Amino acid sequence: MTTTTETADTSATGARPDSLDVVPHWIAGAAFPGSSTRTGDVFDPALGTVTKRVALADDADVAAAVGAATAAFPAWRDLSLARRQAVMFRFRELLDARKGELAEIITSEHGKVLSDALGEISRGQEVVEFATGLAHHLKGEFSENVSTGVDVYSLRQPLGVVGVISPFNFPAMVPMWFFPIAIAAGNTVVLKPSEKDPSAAVWIGELFREAGLPDGVFNVLQGDKVAVDGLLEHPEVRSISFVGSTPIAQYIYETAAKHGKRVQALGGAKNHMLVLPDADLDLVADSAVNAGFGSAGERCMAISVVVAVEPVADALIDRVKQRIAGLTIGDGRRSCDMGPLVTRQHRDKVASYIDIALADGADVVVDGRDVHPDGDPDGFWLGPTLIDRVPTSSRVYTEEIFGPVLSVVRVASYEEGVALINAGEFGNGTAIFTNDGGAARRFQNEVQVGMIGVNVPIPVPVATFSFGGWGQSLFGDTKAHGAEGVKFFTQQKAVTARWLDPSHGGVDLGFPQN
Ligand code: NAD
Fold it and tell me: Rounded to an integer, what distance in angstroms lies between the CA atom of residue 120 and that of residue 170?
């Protein structure tokens, strides 16, 4: 992957006498060092050390990225749909053949285990595959003879330059929720990845160049709030697709709207799993462990609260405890089950919730601070943590923790469980575990959440459907990928056409009627 070597110490986070590689921007089909002298640290979380730096854009860098995308737009828009799709086919083949390289990059900057990194690439690849068939979804409507001799039809056309701003936890998959559809539909893209794991985006830029994408159609702008604000305010940027925490999602939604942009902003989550007494407890325990601790709990669809309808809690907790004891924690390159957290700061924040739980009278069944990792002692380690009897007034319950901390709340009935879920501010994902089809059907009808699993703990819809939550988990009315993604990245035109025949004509000042 392309990097440039820094010669002066320009770190935003303090002096360091070294010459680490700086992850560059990717603009107009090439690595672009940018004019900003600010950089951010990029860690290898399993080693606990800074291994690279990342360029942090200034206003001139924003202008360069948007300028490249603006210049590329007319020719890309006018290229036939078949040719645009052909690029996506080539990109898909290259990605499939070389995804191991991308997984290694993700693991080295995010920390998740290699198999999980490959998993996120596969889910992103699904959207690329969806985009290879975009011609089907871009078909317009046609009504013949709506008035005498008059036909009406609709067209879907690209917006222009679109901005994508992504979080640290899925450096490949989340950008891929958006850019394949945006590009296949004829838009040009500026992606602002998380500054915590910026290299995957540049690797994707290189792959697109190899796939034959014209320069400037896909650009990567590295940076922080300066880059984000630059995109939000730039008049050439027609839309913003954001994924990240709720406070920033709300800021993005409001600011982008103020600047006249179309915006979809996906926020945080606190996903509950409702367990009914008739559920298969071994399946539930497997699912809770997989969904609670996979990717160290740094997934927006992670299960963070098990809502156990009594009398199942004791038996379930025993099973979960047994499974936690069998998990290996360590360097994601060493075939462990769970890797480190993304930064020391984040690890410490997540660990602080264990003290809050103790102070609030909860029962810490497994304390992840007692972890013995298969990895460097300086890595950002926190083992799986299980907390029972979490009071719903505790910050452990009310806040998104975004780490390997699984809470258990005990309730007396299905109704109490659903009421608890519906009282939450987030509405991203939820799941019910039961063998009662009637209860599951009632749950999917009553629960106020955007994505629901029935005996499926992480109900991420496949690419042909759309991904997004309700409540504070999504600002805007359009979800990611599927039909809603196509709608977001295109604007509709309605054409009313009459080809005159000699029998029509004459002056008529009335409003057109049929
Ligand atoms: P974050 O909100 O800190 O950052 C997301 C993006 O916003 C990054 O690109 C970052 O550079 C930028 N950003 C951060 N602070 C900003 C500011 N003050 N002004 C402008 N831009 C700013 O989120 P994160 O920590 O990278 O990711 C974790 C969060 O993302 C969690 O809350 C998680 O639930 C959420 N998430 C949600 C979904 C979903 O589908 N709803 C998916 C993945 C992650």
Answer: 7
